[in-house]
Amino acid sequence: MLIFTLRRLNLFIFTIFLLTLLSFSLSFLFPGDQLINISGQVNATPKQLIVLAEQYQTNNNIFQQYFAYISHLFHGDLGISMASQLSISTEIMSFLPATIELTLVALFIAMLFGIPIGFIAAINHRKATDNIILSISMIGYSIPVFWLGLLAILIFSIQLGWLPSAGQLSLLFEIEHVTGIQFIDILLSDSPYKWQAFQDASAHIFLPACVIALAPATIFVRLARTAMMDVLDSQYIRAAKAKGLSFKQIIYHHAIRNAMVHVIRDVGLQFANLVTIAMVTEVIFSWPGIGRWLIESIFQRDHTSIQGGLLVLSSFIFIVHIVIDFIYAALNPLARESRHGT
Amino acid sequence: MARDKIYLEEEFPSPLLQLWHNFKETPVVMIGFSCFIFLTILALFSPLLTPYTSVENHLDFLLLPPAWNDDGNVSFLLGTDNLGRDMLSRLMHGTSLTFGLSFVVVLISLGIGLVIGSLSALTSGIKSSFLNHFLDVILSIPSLLLAIVIVAILGPGLSNTLWAIIIVLIPQFVHITRNAVTQEFRKDYVLASRLDGASSFRILYHSVFPNILEKLISQATLAQSAAILDIAALGFLGLGAQIPMAEWGAMLKNGIDLFYIAPWTVYLPGLAILFAVVATNLVGEGMRHALKVSKEA
Amino acid sequence: MSIFAVKKRSLKAMFLPILCLVSACNVDKDQSLSDHSIVYCSEGSPESFNPQTVTSGTTIDATSNQLYNRLISFRGEDNTIAPSLAKSWHVTRDGKMITFYLRKDVAFHQTDYFTPTRFFNADDVLFSFNRILLPKHPFHQVSGGKYPFFQSVSFSTVVESIEKINDHTIRFKFKYADSSILANIASDFAVILSKEYADTLVLKNIKREIDTLPIGTGPFKLKEYRPGAYIRYATHKKYWDTPSTLEQLVFDITPSNTSRLTKLLAGECDVIAFPIAHKKIKSKPKLQLEAVTSFNVGYLGFNTLKPPFNDVKVRQAVALAVNKQAIIDTVYRSKADIANSLLPKTSWAYDKNTRSQTYDLSQAKKLITEAGFPDGFTMSLWALPVQRAYNPDAVTMAKLIQADLKKIGIKVVIENSLDMGSFLEQLSKGEHQSVLLGWSADHPDPDNFFTPLLSCSSAESGNNRTFWCNEDFDNLIQQALETTNVAQRKQLYSQALAIISTEVPLIPIAHSKRFQARKNIVKGQLLSPFGGIDFSKVSKN
Fold first, then answer.
1. Which of C262, C276, C400 comes nearest B59 by C-beta?
2. Which end of chain B is less congested by CB atoms within 10 angstroms, N or C?
């Protein structure tokens, strides 16, 4: 396990290095002055610019510039937004938790439904059930998510009136922003309407999370189906069959566990996909998350925010990726021995 | 067809032909394939086929519902939008923008990916390891997010979106080419030609490429469905095709403002995207199935 | 038992209550908090929390009637001037002096950032108006020193001085009589700020907060503002008039038209601004749609300095050839009244006898031939690049006019490539030939339609986009300002309207209505024909 951890750590450092490099080079790639792009100080006086140039070492060679940028990052300084002139790290801190909350709930829903359905399909391989599940899942990942979101609002918010269509929590509730994760904040708050707010927050997250979950869920269906079919094909299942175990016993005691392990391995990769879908969904459901903030920053040509937002978002995806790798390794001792990283 | 040959001759169809034989076995896949062909024809010839141009305003027929509605008009089969533009014509023109361009985009990135992938397969050591890690990192960034960043650098607009998506798609082709070529190079027939004195490039061109082409095509269909969704998503977010282009995603965005007055301006482009993606995915699915069958055979 | 079976079971156990929560939600919430709150989905973020410094309707909506009061205000159907912070007033016979007698028990807001120690008095009035009038005033330059409404009515040239007689009496002295002055003082812009608050800000050296963290006497006080997201107001419990029965008022800032309607239909908003898809709203029994004809006009203006529109016959011909009804049907979707004159029907000075050009192609053709253009000519038409209540879609309107004028041989080239800033700038320089524009009145006094739009003085400043300057007309509107006799003023304005009808410096096209949609459970009046929304009388049952 130690070697596995070291290897992951190595990969993590390499990735973060690449991401910072990418983010650093963005300040050159964006139109306009590099120093202003990297700091966001659009209204700086010439005097302030000199101080900034000193801070970011723009007069020295490119390596020193990069290290100056890295040291700013280590101090939690991502510059200020060119549009609002607010600190980007505080902006991100207020938007990222909402995205984390939404994506994790969506991931949870996707796994909750996708994996069992995949197993069912595999167990009924080459039967009508299997074909129906496969066809539905094909449509599931073919639907453009922005369209699906609109349809979901139309059906569940407007026609049926069950669920709210926008935002994270009804504006009626005053919940103080502590962690940014709405559910935790509600539990921490001393509002007399705590319980109502909690229900309201659940109602708000349900629809967007389901919309985000659909496409990843269909992929989980396929992954789980393949994994289960492989497992059912394997020797030890045949051995179990030969021992006279009932089909139910085989599935519950042997197959599910082993197939799950295989599916978990791919969850990390799917998470990147899920975050992308979440970005678009945030726009449709007016979810106050980092995806919507990033897209607005693009409209405002707020280069500093794009740069910082991208860095934080991809690091977040990568961290989740690695965490899932660890879970996988914890569940599957074989993975720890593998010679190559994923 | 009557057989002239008396002796039973064993035929060895080319890998692609073999693929096609397996491919056409599944009826659903063939439906998808016909839709794909249909879309391709539309994409190529839409300017000749549409009843109106995509930007023509019919001010007397604003927000006309589709023809099957009581208020509809047969000369505007799918209705009109808020500027009196014919939805049918716009959707048809949109085929060449959303579907047609996604095809072109995939073709270009396939080409570039193939070159980089084969080159990297022929190298080894630190360079290769770095590239591998680098690709992993790039692949871990969501494609749409990456495209959004590239659009942020280049500025919004359809052509910039296309460049962005080309760049985004390249890594997966590099990855798959690299793996496939490395795999093939381990095989005996390559060793045989190598012993005959063929250069690496010759082997690549004459022996390896024909054998990995099917894999690439199957990856390309996956990439195309992603490309359609990305072009449409960027159009929808207002970062891609700009007004008055009839790109489906941008049409949908325009339709949102009319959602409650003219719902068809939202339903129709969405259905068009869904249709194109499903057709592409069916073709891809059939391709993968056929590949599997021919491998097992 | 494998680890997964346990995990899955516990996950399910976690998920079930969430499902129940979701379905139970709507039932519970409606019983309590939302009974005492109103969520208003507004169309944008306010620029400032002080209406003195702005003209935008969005800012007026968020501030004037919610946070502040004026000395006097408009009441009732006929917009008569009624007491507000001043319980009575007296105008001298020559109209050059007005004395206001102020209310004594008016409390300012108490908030996290300010606690008042005294009631409202004459110092506050003095402070509020002197901030606008005196360039040397310590607060004049705060927030840029621009007071656009007061500049447009030449407030500082009319007002000679303001005097405090005693703590509850204040006197305005004027250089000359101006019968629209009371209307100006009653307008949404002339709010009363707290001098005591201003003094504490000076001590803390944060003067600019007077416009960002407002203190007023209005029915609501500001609690929280997140730009682009929401404004939260709490009820001002010590409000001098009847305090609101609500606990809180929230402005949910939702710029997208469709999102606003979605929120109304999904029940997330109680009231929404500028609703679209009226049929859809009318089809819902729980919702209601209301409209007031606003004090505005959408018009086609000619640059009367440039040929061929320096010829009155050409202008008349165009006026005859434009099919206004078609424009009302298409561009305004019948949500507007056809404009016969510059003034909307709801104005007291409206004269139904004003003659206006009605659609008549043969007459138009005749006039254009007389003017020497039997084969027509080519003209450029500038279309307003943004949406406004008085003109929701200038480009479509331009296209309709293009089709109309083609029938009398005039070829119209539509210019709509400019952004709003350069559009207005080039208009004031007179670089256009003709333009589609409009005007929203700031208060119900009819003068607000004449002086800013068509007087010679505003032709000089470029605000009169037609550059039309007619001495008779100017004399008439000047005389109307000098008298307070309503009958006499009405008669003078009728004459002025007649001159516009024959001279046609502009073609009035439509008076659009302002719409509002709300849930049936929201009671009380929200809208008046001009100015912002008012939540003080609104309740929920």
1. C400
2. N
